[in-house]
Specification:
single chain; mainly alpha; 3 helices
Length: 62
């Protein structure tokens, strides 16, 4: 039982898990955002503009 606890808080295991999750996140990001980078950039810019307009509209209501 104590061996399992020691292995769970072992820093080398934590580092290995972090490296594995990083590669998994990178793979996920590549899968989701594959395609034309310009289209994604335009999409993000339009989302930011929409958020700014929503917050400015709600600030004039209050």
């Amino acid at each position: 039982m104590l061996d399992k606890i020691k292995n769970a808080i072992n820093p080398t295991n934590f580092q290995e898990d972090l490296e594995n999750s990083k590669s998994t996140l990178e793979k996920f990001g590549v899968k989701i955002f594959k395609g034309d980078k310009v289209i994604w950039l335009v999409f993000v810019i339009l989302c930011v503009i929409s958020l700014v307009e929503i917050f400015s509209a709600t600030s004039t209501i209050v």
